[in-house]
Amino acid sequence: MLQVEGVSRSFGKLVALHDVSLRVDAGSIAGVIGPNGAGKSTLFNLITGLGRPESGTIRFSGKRIDGRPTYWIACLGIARTFQNLRLFPHATALENILTGEHVRLRSNLLEDLVRTPGQRREEEQARARAFELLHLVGLRRAANVRAAALSYGDQRRLEIARALASRPRLLLLDEPAAGMNPVEKDGLAELVRTIHRTGMTVLLIEHDMRFVMGLCEHLTVLDYGERIADGVPQAVRENPRVIEAYLGSELPA
Amino acid sequence: MIFVYIGSTILVAAFGQRIHVPVARIAVYVGLALLLSVGPVLGLGSDATLNTLADAGIFVLLALGLNIVVGFAGLLDLGYAAFFAIGAYTYAMLASPQFGVHLPFWVLLFVGAALAGAFGIILGSPTLRLRGDYLAIVTLGFGEIVPQVFQNLTRFTGGPNGIAALDFPSLFGRSFGTAAFPYYEVTLGLIGVALVTARNLRSSRIGRAWMAIREDELAARHLGINTTRMKLAAFAIGAAFAGVGGVVYAAKLSLVSPDLFQFQVSILVLSMLVLGGMGNIAGVVIGSLVLTLVNQVILPQSNVLAQAAHLPVNLSNAHFFIYGGILVAIMLFRPEGLLPSAQRQAELHESVQADGV
């Protein structure tokens, strides 16, 4: 479904990614792990069109997407969350999700302006779906609460719901468990599994080895912008280069 | 009569933001709309009063339009008067002896809106990459350029003298003439249309896209929102409101000249938004009414008031001082504007309580 081939990207003298390749198969949960500054977020940014790779290609469903505008890539069916939450803080949880449905709604300016019956029906359906998503992430009761007023964990879940609202084919989660306590992390892992069971392909970046080990079917390990390991979690965990990269910061538990 | 209908349905539509509007509230709006539209037919309000109200109404139109650009999409536009000018000059050139073209007012309302909207896109497109302060400076530049162009294109626009003796609009063969009443009713009807437009757009796909751009543009793009197109739409629609306002303004005044559309006008309209409560439709209406009242009623009367209070001062030259003082005072005591989106906050608390959280 997603093929990243030989992608490199540097910022001035800093090489953020060097010749990185990665494949995500339809229907899988894959993870990209690595220490801080390994280039994980840069990889996500290139996939969603924030900057273009200096070399290499990125394909989604066979289509070249590297260097394409972000909104265009989103329309193709890639949705993401952000490491540092990017909700619409002053909008309610419901409004956040409705905004996420943007690409699925067909109404144009004129229909919005005069509120045609078709537009009203579409809005009603959009609200119904938004409530389903709120229910999925356990925020049904917080529908009319401003996003900024939600707890940190709830904000993370809301952001996932907003990403799902566009009914993407690939969901990118950028450090979804960052800043969560162990209980919240377990809840989150369960949520990701639930989403995966609906047939969603998931690619996530994570820091916490324990979190990805139990969740992902396939792992890619980055260190200093290079891919140092790739495979099933068990094999990756025993890879000496991975152990070395993590040594001193965080031992693979 | 038609205005009664339009006025009332529209006011209800615009202010009844919740689906289940209490009957009492509807009654208030219908009553208000009836009073505003039918009152003058029955002789309520002098010609001078209606004249002031019609002018205020034109500014309400402008403020509602600017609110789409600044309040909804969050794009600070300091050159909004340019579109007002484009609408006014559209009427002046196409309904006057200037070129011997005499198109009807009702047609020119649409032409003015379309032309101003087109210029909204033209002037908006170079600014798309800019944000905040930078955007403000560039729009400020446009606001300066447009009246300059009208001033210097003497062959077409009459230069600094502008164009005079514009046609009076007419309806069913009856000319509007110089009485304020018909302009007042037209303005009221247009405000109704503007209110419905603003409200419908805000709570729809495009309105949410604007909100997303205002709140977090990068996140908006990641949701598949074509931010370029949505920003241009905001500029165009906002400009179209100003274009309509300009057509009415020119027709009512029967005169246009470049000095009517200087920077102060842009700032005045922006002050109306800030004062009333940016982004909130009702707040914007209140803000523009209050500022027009201050400008046209309170300031001209300030000397009379001072004398009545036995103050030994001459306030004739202190208008800007008083005006500024009022603005500063309001912003100090109500920085969020006279009528911020309190409705929504109240609604929010209600539903939270209703859900028992």
Walk me through this protein's architecture.
The complex is a heterodimer of chains A (about 250) and B (about 350). Chain A has about 250 residues and is α/β, with parallel strands linked by helices. Chain A contains ten helices and ten strands. Chain A has two domains: about 1-75 and about 170-255, P-loop containing nucleotide triphosphate hydrolases (Rossmann fold), CATH 3.40.50.300; about 90-165, no CATH class. The relative contact order of chain A is 0.18. By secondary structure, chain B is mostly helical. In chain B, the strands form three sheets. Chain B has a two-stranded antiparallel sheet with strand order 1-2. In chain B, strands 3-6 form a two-stranded antiparallel ribbon. In chain B, a hairpin with a 4-residue loop joins strand 1 and strand 2 (about 100). The termini of chain B are far apart. The model of chain B is unreliable at about 1-5 and about 340-355 (pLDDT under 50). The chains are: A alpha/beta (about 250), B mainly alpha (about 350). Chains A and B meet through helix 2, helix 3 and helix 4 of A and helix 8, helix 9, helix 10 and helix 16 of B.
CATH architectural name of the largest domain in chain A: 3-Layer(aba) Sandwich
Distance between the termini of chain A: 30 Å
Query: Percent of residues of chain B in helical segments?
Result: 55-70%
Q: Helix share of residues of chain A? A: 25-40%
Question: If strands are numbered along the chain, what order do they take across the biggest sheet of chain B?
Answer: 1-2
Distance between the termini of chain B: 48 Å
Radius of gyration of chain A: 19 Å
CATH class of the largest domain in chain A: Alpha Beta
Averaging pLDDT over every residue of chain A, what do you get?
A: 90
Largest sheet of chain B: 2 strands, antiparallel
Report the β-strand fraction of chain B as a percent range.
under 5%
* Largest beta-sheet details of chain A: 6 strands, mixed
For the largest sheet of chain A, list the strands in their spatial order.
6-7-8-3-9-10
Q: Biggest interface and which pair forms it?
A: A-B, 40 and 30 residues
